[in-house]
């Protein structure tokens, strides 16, 4: 598991922990309204099953980071990402002296870090945005045409065709989108490039000594969710010699990588190559 996958799985557990109870209550209410379930042993069994699932999710969520830290050389990167997504508090087991030392003085090479975490130091935007309209129409056709046929001609098996068409369309969309973005990325300049010398953004190189900090505010803590902000101070680039506080704003919804990928890259390069 990569560092980015760790945080994505944590996000998934959090979403499921909210959605499962809501979906369960809705399902119980619907079944009861249709007289398909009554208050009794079946309902008790259903509720107990949901509680068991929630308990397993809670346990897996609490153990996720601890199990990962027990077998990874990138504990410092995990701590850095955790502390930059504007979470309320960083757990104590992530703030040990050993982990802080791992972040400030990484003992692994950049090549190993990139390979193990399946990262590239270039951040490209999504080039397939215009194709989403075509994909959307394809998905609508795959759903509604079989549904209309099933309704009008009373051919229920057409609903299975619609479901199969929807799944196949989704798979084709993802494969084509990935390949299209890969081809375009090979011939286009990245939106952001992270290198040993610093961050290259819009033909301007910002040295690591000038990069002050970065953040990726959570959706419930920011007016601009889904963005990564890189804050830096430039003095040597200005003719008048005065310092200028600037920032880079990346809309991750329009990028090919996740915010966790960018945060991991920033943490590694900043602490390894900053003087």
Low-confidence stretches: none
H/E series: HHHHHEHHEEEEEEH
C-alpha geometry: globular
Average pLDDT, to the nearest integer?
A: 78
CA-CA gap between termini = 31 Å
- As laid out across the biggest beta sheet, the strand order is 1-2-3-4
How does the major sheet shape up? 4 strands, antiparallel
How many domains, in number, for the residues?
A: 3
Rounded to the nearest angstrom, the radius of gyration is: 24 Å
Residue fraction in strands: 5-15%
Query: Helix proportion of residues, in percent?
Result: 55-70%
Short description:
The chain is of the alpha+beta class and 275 residues long. It has 8 helices and 7 strands, in the order αααααβααββββββα. The radius of gyration is 24 Å and the shape is globular.
Write the layout of secondary structure elements.
Blueprint: H1 3-33, H2 41-69, H3 75-84, H4 97-104, H5 110-116, E1 122-123, H6 131-153, H7 158-187, E2 192-194, E3 198-201, E4 204-207, E5 211-215, E6 227-234, E7 244-251, H8 259-273
Antiparallel strand pairs: 1-2, 2-3, 3-4, 5-6, 6-7
Account of the protein in words:
With 275 residues, the chain is an alpha+beta fold. It has three domains: 1-71; 73-121 and 190-275, no CATH class; 131-187. The protein is built from eight helices and seven strands. It has helices at 3-33, 41-69, 75-84, 97-104, 110-116, 131-153, 158-187, 259-273, and strands at 122-123, 192-194, 198-201, 204-207, 211-215, 227-234, 244-251. A four-stranded antiparallel beta sheet has the order 1-2-3-4, with helices on one face. The protein has a three-stranded antiparallel beta sheet with strand order 5-6-7, covered by helices on one side. The two termini are 31 Å apart. The mean pLDDT is 78.
